[in-house]
Amino acid sequence: MQKTTGLLASSLIKLKNLQLTGKLVSEELMLGIHSSKRSGIGIEFEQYRHYEPGDDPKRIDWKLFARTNKHLVRESSTESDRQIRFVLDLSGSMNYTENGVSRLQYACILLASLAYLCYIQNDQMSLYGLKAGKVETISGAGSASSARQAFQKILVGLEKASAEGPWTTEGIEGFEFRTKKKEQLIFVSDFLQADDEWLSWIRSLAGPYREIVVFQLLGDRETDFDLKGFYRFRDLESARELELDAESAATAFRASMRSYLADLKTALQIPHVHLVRARMSEPIAQVLKAFLTRRKG
Question: 182, 90 in Cβ contact below 8 A?
Fold first, then answer.
């Protein structure tokens, strides 16, 4: 069922400005978490709290006051030296669209929001794309002192991102993110694999010094399959087409999807890996808030 609270991706897309949408989602998220401690998914960000007597008025976020009519200040924080790597699936299935929102558009807003959190925390961050089984560096790692520049480069990369073709494992074997300190990999994908190519790669990457978060983005119709009548279905990666009566295939499809998602969840219950499953109809801040709250608990 579609959520009605928070900013929906369909509304954010109309702004046609990833920097603004990322900032709006992040502020909505920070206002929704009522804790004076920093929340960590690796991306540690400053929390907002209400102004109290004795606080320096200069710490008030006046731009936020103009929007909320509330005197809010940021909690102080220390710089993070952790490397955050965003990894975006750019295979053809990311073009899947529901209610005017493609999976790729949703993914880009989600990543822009996370990148904004990194920016205000002065985190090191970089962006990679997965296309045709290969890892492409879209925006390389930047130092904490150039968080703003890294943020802007990631936004440019997201704005130019396009999805096409099948996902294959050719060329990815042996690829390694090189680092000498703790880091976090944040994958954004539909995670609809033909075999176990995604699982195998993630298992090889996870470890004590590398935490992995997987955001799996799915459409309501992909999971519920509530279609009726004859449809021509087209595979967004292979371009193969199939005509069938959707209602007659619904029961088997839903059972297969439930089984796949359950098996995937079980397979990813390994150390240092976290699965976040989100529907494209959910407000992005709500998805991030639920995850952060669960991590804190």
Answer: no
SS3 labels along 147-195:
HHHHHHHHHHHHHHCCCCCCCCCCCCCCCCCCCCCCEEEEEEECCCCCC
Q: Phi, psi at residue 147, to the nearest 5°?
A: -60, -40
Q: Which of 261, 131, 90 is nearest to 192 (CA)?
A: 261
Q: What are 40-87's pLDDT values in tens digits?
A: 444 544 556 676 776 677 777 777 777 677 777 765 444 456 689 999
CA dihedral for 168, 173, 177, 182, sign (positive or negative): positive
- Residue 150: CB atoms within 10 A of its CB come to 26
Gap between the Cα atoms of 7 and 21, Å rounded: 9
Find residue 187's DSSP bridge partners: 87, 214
- If one compares 226 and 283, the residue with the highest pLDDT of the two is 283
> How remote is the C-alpha of 4 from its chain's centroid?
20
Predicted pLDDT at 290: 80
Supply the pLDDT for residue 175.
60
34-37 long-range Cβ contacts below 8 angstroms, 24+ apart: 35/296, 36/75, 37/296
For helices 284-296 and 103-121, angle between their N-to-C axes, nearest 10 degrees? 50
Q: Which among 220, 111, 103 is positioned nearest to 163, based on CA atoms?
A: 103
How far apart CA 74 and CA 49 sit, in angstroms, is: 7
For residue 12, give the nearest of 293, 290, 286 by alpha carbon.
286
Homologous superfamily in CATH for domain 9-296: von Willebrand factor, type A domain (3.40.50.410)
**pTM above 0.85?**
no
Amino acid at 51: Y
Contacts of 17 (CB under 8 A, 6+ apart): none
